Amino acid sequence: MRLPSNLRMKLARDFACVKTQGASQAGKYLVLGALRVEALEEFQFGLITGGRLGNAVVRNRIRRLLREIIRAHRAEVLPGWQMVIIARWRAPQATLQELENDWLRLARRMSLLKPKTSAPPRSPAP
């Protein structure tokens, strides 16, 4: 299932606002920048994969992996946030699981995810 296009940040001024007015956290493979925008009904994200990562094949692979991570955790992200995900130089060597763990850690640190609801206690089996 594809992500709807309204979730993507497309304008350079949106990226610049997140950079200048937002906060950021760096992980091993990613840098996550975020800015609270009350007018958003859902969230928006943008991806940055610079030329230092490798050729177009490598950069596109990283973008596909990052979009998959966003798609998988879309329901957990709080509405009203613009986030920019920047792939660091180590990202091409990372697996999907490593990138996902790094993104989740950064998103939790920045309070971008809904709090986990604890499961109701199970009754002991007779």
UniProtKB/TrEMBL annotation:
Molecular function per GO = 3'-tRNA processing endoribonuclease activity; ribonuclease P activity; tRNA binding
Q: Does the keyword tRNA processing apply?
A: yes
Write down a Pfam family by its short name: Ribonuclease_P
**Catalytically driven reaction(s):** Endonucleolytic cleavage of RNA, removing 5'-extranucleotides from tRNA precursor
Which is a GO BP term held by this UniProt record? tRNA 5'-leader removal
PROSITE patterns the UniProt entry points to: RIBONUCLEASE_P
Q: What InterPro entries is this protein classified in? A: Ribosomal_Su5_D2-typ_SF, Ribsml_uS5_D2-typ_fold_subgr, RNase_P, RNase_P_CS
Q: What is its EC number?
A: 3.1.26.5
On whether tRNA processing is a keyword of this UniProt record, the answer is yes
Question: Which enzyme class, named as a word?
Answer: hydrolase
**Cellular component aspect of the GO annotation:** ribonuclease P complex
Q: Give the keywords, sorted.
A: Endonuclease, Hydrolase, Nuclease, RNA-binding, tRNA processing
Q: Which domain of life is it from?
A: Bacteria
Q: What family does the entry list?
A: Belongs to the RnpA family.
Looking up NCBIfam families in the UniProt record yields:
rnpA (TIGR00188)
How it assembles, according to the record, is:
Consists of a catalytic RNA component (M1 or rnpB) and a protein subunit.
Protein purpose = RNaseP catalyzes the removal of the 5'-leader sequence from pre-tRNA to produce the mature 5'-terminus. It can also cleave other RNA substrates such as 4.5S RNA. The protein component plays an auxiliary but essential role in vivo by binding to the 5'-leader sequence and broadening the substrate specificity of the ribozyme.
The name of this protein is Ribonuclease P protein component
